[in-house]
Amino acid sequence: MVMSPIKEQLYFQCFNEIIRQITIKNPEHGNVMIRIRDDLKMSIDGYRKLQESMIAKDIRKLLLKEKEKSNLEKMVQQLMSENERLEAEFAETTKMTQELELEIADKREEQALNRAKELDDIKKEMEIIKDRLRSEIARDRRERPK
Question: What keywords sit in the KW lines (predicted)?
Answer without folding.
Answer: Coiled coil, Dynein, Motor protein
